[in-house]
Design a protein that fits this description.
Layout (H helix, E strand, L loop, with lengths): L1 H13 L2 H9 L14 H8 L1 H25 L4 H16 L12 H12 L2 H16 L3 H18 L4 H17 L1 H4 L7 H14 L1
Length: about 200
C-alpha cells in the first residue's frame, strides 16, 4: 500500500500545475519569466496573483494530501513514511512530464510538513523563511536557512528519527534545486538595510 501511495504521490507531485494554469488561463509559458522555474512564483509574475495563488495552492495540496492520508489515515510510519513524504517533492523537483526539470518544490515542501505535523511544521517553517527573507539578500539562502530553522525546532521538540530523515532528504533537495543561487554567497538583506535606513531618516 505504501508503495502505491508513494508512486501516486510522485506522479501527483510531477504534475506542473503552474505551467498548465499559465498556458491555459494566463499569459503563456511561465518558464520564460524570471529564473525560468516552473513554479507558483513565476506563475504569479507572468499571469497575476489569481493564477499564482491557485498554482501555489495546488502545489501545496499535492504534498499535503498523499502524506496526510498515509500518516493520519493509514498509520504508515518509519522509513515507509519517509519514502511517501519525499515522493511528492521528488516528483515536483524532477518532473518526468518536463524532462525531469521541475520546480524548486517550496510550496510542496510546506504541504508535506502539513501532512506530517498538521499546521505546526509549516507555521514554523514559514516564520523562519520570513525572518531570513529580510536578513539575507538571496532568496535561495533564506530558504536554506529557513530549513535549518525548522531543523532546530525539530531538535528542540525531540522529534523521532523518521522526521529527521525526511528533513534531511528535503534539505538536500532544496540545496540541489537552489545550487546556482547559493554559489553567489550569503549577503546581508537589502530589504533589512533599506528598512533600517528609512527608519534612521525618520528619526533624524
Amino acid at each position: 500500500m505504501f508503495l502505491i501511495i508513494a508512486l501516486l504521490g510522485f506522479l501527483l507531485g510531477a504534475i506542473p500545475f503552474s505551467l498548465i494554469l499559465g498556458k491555459r488561463f494566463g499569459s503563456g509559458d511561465i518558464r520564460l519569466v524570471g529564473d525560468g522555474n516552473p513554479g507558483a512564483v513565476n506563475a504569479w509574475k507572468s499571469s497575476g496573483w489569481r493564477i499564482g495563488l491557485s498554482a501555489g495552492l495546488l502545489d501545496y495540496l499535492k504534498g499535503a494530501l498523499p502524506v496526510g492520508i498515509a500518516h493520519f489515515m493509514l498509520g504508515i510510519g518509519g522509513w515507509r513514511l519517509a519514502l511517501v513524504a519525499l515522493a511528492p517533492i521528488l516528483g515536483h523537483a524532477f518532473s518526468p512530464f518536463l524532462g525531469f526539470r521541475g520546480g524548486k518544490a517550496i510550496a510542496t515542501t510546506f504541504g508535506v510538513w502539513t501532512g506530517l505535523l498538521m499546521f505546526e511544521g509549516p507555521v514554523v517553517l514559514g516564520i523562519c523563511l520570513g525572518i531570513f527573507y529580510f536578513l539575507v539578500e538571496e532568496d535561495a539562502w533564506s530558504v536554506a536557512l529557513g530549513m535549518l530553522g525548522l531543523l532546530g525546532w525539530l531538535l528542540a521538540r525531540r522529534m523521532d528519527l523518521t522526521l529527521m530523515a525526511i528533513w534531511g532528504g528535503n534539505f538536500l533537495l532544496v540545496l540541489w534545486k537552489h545550487r546556482r543561487e547559493l554559489r553567489r554567497g550569503i549577503k546581508p538583506g537589502r530589504r533589512l538595510i533599506k528598512g533600517l535606513g528609512e527608519r534612521e531618516l525618520r528619526l533624524q
